[in-house]
Write a structure and sequence with these properties.
Layout lengths: L2 H31 L4 H13 L1 H12 L3 H26 L2 E2 L2 H22 L3 E2 L1 H24 L1 H9 L11 H31 L5 H26 L3 H26 L4 E2 L2 H25 L1 E2 L1 H20 L9 H31 L2
Antiparallel strand pairs: 1-4, 2-3
């Protein structure tokens, strides 16, 4: 272990925290100044900006013919975003979930996770498939912006009533400078952190897929983590949730799509990733539906559940790092899918039962 690598890690973390603070301040204020909902800012500016490290890392890895880093970066980041980021943010404060997330964005995330898994089932993500994913980002943005514009009258009403929608806007120019400075620090900090962490992990002789799923995925997701934690601390829980969901959609459409198109011959996907990591990514996405539907909130105990599942995934992932073949899909579903989906469905079932019990004959 070299001292320079440790210094890169520490400096990268410091830049990430500072960048997240600036980004949340500017984005929350710009939401009102532009007449947009904080959720839209979380789903677009914040989530796409904090996913810039994944995009840069994916393109560079694709250009260097390192498909394991590309796939591990996207799949690992998506698992990390939902289980760790939402888990930690929920421990800080119960996260309010906007209806648009439940009706539109989470179903889109689930569908995309399934579609990408299907595309990769043959062992390769072709260039034309990457171009199709990247084009899907444009369609998603158009739908999201239109939905937010329809909600603008409600936002203006809340402002006139003095309700806490977000930070009071100063000037749009100042907000833009804060967002730009925050994004710059996030990308800079993530680059330093990933360089240091990858150098340390590579010295241990770990495969590039495992490095991508763990060190690189966690490193490039730290901007999302820092941003969502700061947003939760400042009371902008809609930005915290929208950031995690929007980042996953951006990773699948923009990061994986662009990287697959850049790589000559597309991106190869290992059988281990197809049999273990892709199902876990889909399960994490599906588990958000009952959690968000149960009470339009992510409670603290659900945050603990998400963190526990991620700890189990990480431990098992490292345990099978040198295995010749991944666990069967039945084993993955039994070990992770049934407990995760079952426990997240409990609050939804409980509310339904209580509702029937209180109605009476």
């Amino acid at each position: 272990m070299q001292a320079s690598d440790v210094l890169l890690l520490v400096a990268g973390l410091a830049l990430l925290v500072a960048g997240a603070e600036l980004l949340v301040r500017g984005a929350a204020s710009a939401a009102l100044a532009l007449g947009l909902s904080p959720l839209l800012i979380g789903l677009t500016v914040v989530s796409f900006g904090t996913s810039a490290p994944e995009l840069v890392t994916g393109i560079m890895a694709a250009a260097r013919a390192e498909p394991g880093i590309v796939v591990g970066n996207v799949v690992g980041s998506n698992i990390f975003n939902l289980l760790v980021i939402l888990g930690l943010a929920a421990l800080i404060a119960p996260l309010t979930v906007d209806r648009q997330l439940v009706r539109v964005d989470v179903p889109v995330m689930v569908a995309l996770s399934l579609v990408v898994w299907g595309m990769a089932a043959g062992g390769t993500l072709a260039r034309w498939e990457g171009a199709l994913l990247a084009a899907g980002l444009v369609a998603y943005l158009l739908v999201t912006v239109r939905a937010s514009r329809r909600a603008a009258p409600e936002i203006e009403k809340k402002i006139s009533e003095g309700l806490p929608v977000g930070a009071v806007p100063r000037t749009l120019v100042k907000d833009a400078l804060l967002v730009g400075a925050g994004l710059g620090l996030l990308v800079w900090g993530a680059a330093w952190l990933v360089r240091g962490a990858t150098a340390l992990a590579a010295g241990l002789g770990v495969s590039e897929l495992v490095i991508g799923l763990t060190v690189v995925a966690a490193g490039t997701s730290l901007p999302e983590l820092a941003t969502s934690v700061v947003a939760a601390l400042r009371g902008h829980t809609d930005i915290a949730v929208g950031n995690a969901v929007g980042s996953n959609i951006f990773n699948l459409l923009a990061v994986l799509g662009t990287s697959s198109w850049v790589a000559s011959g597309g991106i190869s996907v290992s059988p281990t990733a197809l049999g273990f990591d892709f199902p876990l990514m889909l399960l994490a996405a599906v588990s958000c539906l009952p959690v968000f539907l149960s009470a339009a909130k992510v409670e603290r105990w659900e945050g603990v559940l998400f963190l526990g599942v991620y700890a189990g995934y990480l431990a098992w992932r490292l345990a099978i790092a040198g295995a010749a073949s991944p666990p069967s899909l039945e084993v993955v579903l039994t070990s992770f899918g049934v407990p995760l989906i079952g426990l997240t469905c409990l609050p939804l079932v409980w509310r339904r039962l209580r509702g029937r019990a209180t109605i009476g004959p």
